[in-house]
Amino acid sequence: MTAAALVVTGHPRADSLTAGLARHARDRLTAGGHTVDLLDLEAEGFDPRMTPEDEPGWGDPRQTYSPDSRS
């Protein structure tokens, strides 16, 4: 039985143990016939911080959020 897998990493160094383990997991899963998507949050410029623009507007149904939050 094969499956689809998502491997996510976010370490800033491509030569880190974390990045190496993510690649190893991807390679082993692929070798096992699974479909794998490796998502590198650092390479995509993902910023995990919540800014004031992204605070929920619980009382305002017209609240707009930053472009990063909307995508």
Walk me through the structure:
The chain has helices at residues 17-31, 67-70; strands spanning 4-9, 35-40. The protein is elongated, with a radius of gyration of 17 Å. Helices cover 27% and strands 17% of the residues. It has a two-stranded parallel ribbon with strand order 1-2. By secondary structure, it is α+β, with helices and mostly antiparallel strands. The mean pLDDT is 88. The chain is built from two helices and two strands, in the order βαβα. Strand 1, helix 1 and strand 2 (35-40) form a beta-alpha-beta unit.
How much of the residues is beta strand, in percent? Answer: 15-25%
> Helix coverage percent of residues?
25-40%
Q: How would you classify the helix and strand content by structural class? A: alpha+beta
In which order are the strands of the major sheet placed?
Answer: 1-2
Number of strands: 2
**Arithmetic mean of pLDDT:** 88
Short description:
27% of the residues lie in helices and 17% in strands. With 71 residues, it is α+β, with helices and mostly antiparallel strands.
Features:
71 residues; two-stranded parallel sheet; alpha+beta
